[in-house]
Amino acid sequence: MAISFFLYKFAEKRRRSGRKGHPDGPDGGRVPSGGGTAAHPDAAHLITANPIMTDMKQNLKNVVLAAGLACTALTGQAQNAGSKTTQTVTNSLMKQSTLPFNAPDFSRIKDEDYLPAIKAAIDEQRAEIKKIADNKQKPTFANTILAYERSGKDLERISNIFYALVSADKTPEIEKAQGSIGPMMTEFENETKFNQKFFRRIKYVYDHEYKTLKGEDKKLLEVIYKDFTHAGALLPKEKMARMQEINREQAKLQQEFGNMLPKAANEATVWVSDVKELAGLGETGIAQCKKDAESRGGKAPYCIVITNTTQQPVLASLENRALRERVYNASIHRTDGTGAYNAFPVIVKIARLRAEKAQLMGYKNYASYSLERAMAKNTDNVYAFLRQMIEAYRPKSEAQTKAIEEYAQKTEGADFRLQPYDRFYYSAKMKRDQCSFSDDDVKPYFNLDSVLVNGIFYAAHRVYGLSFRERKDIPAYHKDMKVFDVMDADGRQLALFYCDYFRRPTKRGGAWMSAFLKQSGDRQQKPLVYNVCNFAKAPEGQPTLLTWDETQTMFHEFGHALHGMLSDCRYNTLSGTSVSRDFVEMPSQFNESFASIPEVFNHYARHCKTNEPMPDALREKMLGSLNFLSAYALGENLAATCVDMAWHCLTPSEVPTAEEAPAFEKKALAEIGLLNHQIPPRYSASYFNHIWGGGYAAGYYSYLWSEVLAVNIADYFEAHGALTRKVGDDFRRKILSRGNTCDLMTIFSDFTGLKAPDTKGLLKARGM
Hints:
Family: Belongs to the peptidase M3 family.
Low-confidence stretches: 1-50, 54-86
Protein name: Peptidase family M3
Mean pLDDT: 89
Largest sheet: 5 strands, mixed
EC number: 3.4.-.-
Strand order of the largest sheet: 3-4-5-7-6
Radius of gyration: 25 Å
Strand content: 5-15%
Oligomer: single chain
Pfam families: Peptidase_M3 (PF01432)
Keywords: Hydrolase, Metal-binding, Metalloprotease, Protease, Zinc
């Protein structure tokens, strides 16, 4: 009997990272206010250039404060005309691209171009805003709001390109430029948001036209007005001055944290001299360890690279327990001061500044301040949701931990005590024994190129009528990348899609989506969207093979990409992924469900050598095992979410010192019932990029919240035809194309027919 796809649609959910993926993206990533893209959790879906980590991007005039940029006073004004003319001739960033869709011409852009180009673009938008503020005519939507929406095109375009490299290919030259660009961007954002002459015009339009405006005009006015008031434009003068100081300090600290993480991860690399210690990895895994060692300086013949999460995927295969312990400890101690890097002094300062900012704005804590603009609305709703999840999860967690330890004791002896670095290893062995299935059995069927073309693109064609064509004539920022035309069913060009899938020392961890340019009917701009992941690239001449989790990550990040590519909005500020964090992860998590639909699965899951489809029996074993010992995936996510909320529900005086921070985390987890030695948070505070370097502060719950929405969407597709164009076109029209032009709960209800999200489906899908 064939296994129903929807039974497994969201099993074994994990945040990859980032927009946004923001960042987790993503998991997921960094995302500006209003949403850039996403850090998926390690994305996190990410969204600066804050990608959706799912990292995401937003018009910089609405986003820079969320971008995590450093800040100091901006010195100097516009360059003289002669100097600017000379620079324009030699600086390709300061003139429009001649490539399709105004795509960045990376073949001409030099690292030294960014600083002068962004300086000039800031001066350009400063002049545009001054012209609006100095207008003697009565403020109207057209001469104030629309004029502001149309300003800053060059600044957004250039900074989007720059911050893509900050995340994905940060060379020493880019990092040096960031040290100067960050302060300028933050100072300009302060200058704009606290420009009272300018804000009075915005407020006048809001007070006099909001009730009579319709559609996207009304929504644009609302978003811009609330963006200014949320930043502090209504504060008294002395509080406004302090808010600007906080923004400067916070941006500088967030950049410091963001720069520290990849360096700390590289420093934490575990070096191995004896190949025998790598037993269990197989020939391919050992070859990857050798390749990684060579690319990182060759301190030893082999090395194990530390990923951005607490648990390391390699622990599922390593037979050497002492090496497993070394790898795990390298991960958890990467930034706690045990070694060369200590992030605690940085994060406690960020937490204290955020708490102070919230109090200046009249809120009890930063979480309350931040959640006001989310679907969840307040901390009570978030904690009620989390407690419902925890109540269902805890009994399963305890039973599964006991079962794994008892299984290990059969071979290791009755005195054996399971440690965190053992769990993945014995879980994998137990799965192999009880399910007659190993992840290694299916890996040859997940060739990255086939997953992309025969899986992701195929599903998008079946559901939305899209087609894709590789463009080798359009340059990207790295030689490993590919670029594709995206065409609608009628042959119209919709977007460009860039994919950057392989890890390298200059790329931060996780997976995310973002955009070089967002869709805008008003600007007649097609979206230029990109996905970034961190997969190990196979040796030359061999196919890159993925795990099932990595396959889902690709589908996830492409879900964010679809949200950006299928946008059909008038205004740039409202388009694509410019939605709240707890909604932006829904399209990406829903898109994961197509990975296991039999028709799609059989189309891409083909053996890398024979091109034969995966045998039905093996496919059913794999899908049937997705919820095997599933409590871990939910538990690490819940724990990370509670760490995030604990830090952001503090007043300034309650923020712990750097020395107290580790104990604070343990206490917070214990109080909510999640302190579990066996299931640590997916990220501990000292390396939790989503909340300190990205846009997910008090927002990591979004991955689970959005997953509820995604399961509800999948249920609707199941009932009406998972691969039918009619349902796909309906989903595209009612949700994916709408951006932030409508109330998000309204468009969700309009599509599903539900008055409110139903959490029962998530618990069932999670095997709880």
